[in-house]
Amino acid sequence: MTLPLDDGKQAFDIAIIGGGIAGITLAIALINRGIKAKIYEQAHAFGEIGAGVAFSPNATQAMEICSDGIYQGFEKVATKNQWESKEKVWFDLVDGYHHDESMGNQEKFLFQLSNELGQNAVHRAHFLDEMVKLVPEGASHFRKHLDLVTEEEDGKLRMKFHDGSEAVADAVIGCDGIKSRVRQLILGEDDPASQPQYTHKYAYRGLIPVKRATEILGEENAVNAKLHMGPNKHILTFPVNKGETMNVVAFCTNSDPWPDSQHLTMPSKKSTAIKEFEGWGRNCVEIMNLLEDDLDCWAIFDTADHPLRTYYKGRIVVSGDAAHATTPHHGAGAGFCIEDSAVMAELLAYSAAKVKGGKVSKNQVLEATFAAFEAARKERTQWLVQSSRLNGDLYEWRAAGYGSDIEKIEKELRASNEIIWNVDVRKMAREAVEDLEKRIA
C-alpha cells in the first residue's frame, strides 16, 4: 500500500526518516515555514533513549531559528546548576581518582569551563514530549523501517518500508541516527563509512534522587555539574528534572571488542560498575554505590574512523547523527543536530520560494539545496566527531601528547569548546542560503 499524501499545493513533499531530536526539530521547522514534511519513524511511537542531554548556546540559537515553540519547550524542561554561583558553569572538572582524606567529600578542583548559559540539561524524553506537541496530526507515521528508495519516472522518490508499505516524496532526509539506513543508501552498504565504529569506550548510566545524593556527597556535588577525571575512566554528574535528580554517566575504556555489534546497550549490574571504579576517590566510589542495582551499559560508537565522504546523493541527504555520529564527550551532538535542522530549514524555505515563483525546477533546486547544506555543515560537524573523540581521552589522561598534564588539557578543552559555543548560527544559515543562491543562479 502507498501511504496517503494530502493535496495541499506546496513546493515540496519532504520525507524525514527518523523521529528523534534531529528529525522532529527539522519537521517542526519545515512545517512552520509552510513546507510539507512527514516523519517516518521505525518505532511504535516517538521516543528517546538515554536520560540527560545538555545544550549550549549554539544549540539554543538553533532552536530559536527552527521554532519559538522548540525553544519554549526546552526552557520549560531545562535544568541548570542549582547554586546561583554556578549559574554560568558548564562543568567543574575535578580529580576523581586521587583522594585526600582531610578534604572530606571534596575532590581536588582542577579547572572550570563556563559559557553564557552554563549547564542546561534536559531529560531527553521530557524534551521530546514538548516537541511532539508541535507536530501536526497526520505528519508522523510509525513502525516504518526504511528498506529502499527508488526514483519514479515522474521524478518522485519512492520509499519502500519493511512492512510492505510505500510512500513517495520529492526528497528524503535521513535523520535516522547512528545506525542510519539512509547513510547506507547514499554511500553503499560496503562503504566502511556506512557503519559506525566502536570507540572502545562504554558507559554506565543512572539516575540518583538528589536528596539521597546530597546526604552522601554533599549539596555542592549533588546539585551542580561535575566532571570527575581519572586514568582510563571518567564520570559526569549533573542535575536534571528541575534539580530533583542527579544524572550519572560513568565512562570506561578498554581494548576489548564490544560483544554485540547489533545492540549498543547491554544489561549490567551496579556491582560491575562498582568494581570498575575500585581504587578511585571516595566520591566516585560513593556515586557508584548510589546507583540502582540494575543498570544498562552503553557502547560508545561514532563515525570518526571512517568519515562520510558526502552527505547527499541526488535528492537524498543525511542530517544529524546519520551524517556525523559523535561520541558524547563534548556534550554537543544533540545541539549540532539542531544546528543542522536550522540550516536545512532555512535552505529549503529559500528553495521553496524559488520553486513557487516558477524560477527553477524542483529537482534541480533540491539537489543544489543539499549541496549547499553539505558545504555549510560538513567541516564543522566532522570536526566535532574528531574533537569529541579526543576529549574522551583528555578526560581520562590518556590522550597522546597530553597525558595527565592538566594545564595542557585545560587549554585544549577551552579552545575546542569556544569553537562550539561562540558561533553565530543565524549567520551560518544566512551564508548557506547565499551559497545556494549562487548555485541556482
Report on the structure:
With 441 residues, this protein is α/β, with parallel strands linked by helices. The protein is built from 14 helices and 19 strands. An 8-stranded mixed sheet has the order 5-4-13-14-15-12-17-16, sandwiched between helices. Strands 7-2-1-11-19-18 form a 6-stranded mixed sheet, with helices on both faces. A 3-stranded antiparallel sheet has the order 8-9-10, covered by helices on one side. A hairpin with a 2-residue loop joins strand 18 (312-313) and strand 19 (316-318). Helix 12 runs antiparallel to helix 14. The radius of gyration is 22 Å and the shape is elongated.
Descriptive labels:
about 450 residues, alpha/beta, eight-stranded mixed β-sheet, about 25% strand
In short:
This protein has 441 residues and is an alpha/beta fold.
Straight-line N-to-C gap? 39 Å
Please count the beta strands (DSSP E, at least 2 residues each).
19
By secondary-structure content and strand pairing, the structural class works out as alpha/beta
| Share of helical residues | 25-40%
The average pLDDT score comes to 94
Which strand order does the major sheet show?
Answer: 5-4-13-14-15-12-17-16
Q: Which spans have pLDDT < 50 for at least 5 consecutive residues?
A: 1-8
Largest sheet: 8 strands, mixed
Number of helices: 14
Using only CA atoms, what is the Rg?
Answer: 22 Å
Shape category: elongated
- The proportion of strand residues reads 15-25%
